[in-house]
Design goal:
The chain is α+β, with helices and mostly antiparallel strands. The protein is about 30% helix and about 30% strand. It has four helices and 14 strands. Strands 3, 6, 7, 8, 9, 10, 11, 12, 13 and 14 form a ten-stranded antiparallel beta sheet that branches. Strand 8 and strand 9 form a beta hairpin.
């Protein structure tokens, strides 16, 4: 009987000891606790870093060929807001370099006029010029560049006249004007208005009597002389 009780006690002791051992095996060892804490801290730090990357988007874009990141260009405001755009500058350059039309050296003294009489004999006397008719007060223009040597009531029968010296002995004479707008000694250019059509002097109606002189009072036919200079007076 003592042997049975002793064996039972021994069995109970073994069971208790085994339970203690098992309980101690489930408890974490002291050296494993810091390791677990370090892993948790690293995971939290990695998560924070990942959120920071997502919050600040990259300013670089991968290059299609190599995949390397290249800076994204940023627009820079113009330093000078008054600078003209390139298109306007090029248009301005084109206007400044375009050749200006050349003025003719000689022109019709009253363009568009009707010829009422040409140079030649008329009523037994020499008609020493060409008569050009337009409505009264039509502008009269210098046939070419030169210097005014007569202006006003200068010659009998011609009424109010203007005579322009073109150099080399050649002069042009514009008679029967209503009024002049130039004076002696004034320089004029081809096409410049020198007076207005009238009927002063020996005239039956408003017209311009136009003469060409090779030396004053040595009248020549104005038609071929002006034609040689590119102007057709209609005679």
């Amino acid at each position: 009987m003592r042997y049975r009780i002793g064996g039972a006690v021994a069995l109970v002791g073994l069971a208790v000891a085994g339970g203690l051992v098992a309980f101690q095996g489930d408890a974490p060892s002291p050296d494993r606790v810091p390791v677990a804490r370090d892993e948790a801290a690293r995971a939290a730090a990695a998560e924070r870093a990942d959120r920071a990357v997502r919050a600040a988007p990259s300013t670089t874009a991968p290059t299609p060929s190599t995949g390397a990141a290249t800076p994204t260009p940023t627009a820079t405001p113009s330093a000078d807001p008054t600078t003209s755009p390139p298109a306007r500058k090029s248009a301005t350059a084109a206007r400044t370099t375009a050749a200006k039309p050349k003025r003719p050296a000689w022109v019709n003294p009253m363009p568009g006029a009707t010829v009422t009489s040409c140079y030649g004999m008329r009523w037994g006397v020499l008609h020493a010029g060409i008569d050009l008719a337009m409505p009264a007060e039509t502008p009269i223009r210098a046939a070419g560049a030169g210097t005014v040597v007569e202006a006003g009531w200068a010659f009998a029968g011609y009424g109010i006249s203007v005579v322009v010296d073109h150099g080399n002995g050649w002069l042009t004479h514009y008679a029967h004007q209503s009024r002049t707008v130039v004076q002696v000694g004034q320089k004029v250019t081809a096409g410049q208005v020198i007076g207005y059509e009238g009927a002063t002097g020996d005239a039956t109606g408003p017209h311009l009597h136009f003469e060409v002189h090779q030396g004053l009072w040595n009248q020549v036919d104005p038609a071929p002389w002006m034609r040689a200079r590119g102007v057709d007076l209609g005679c």
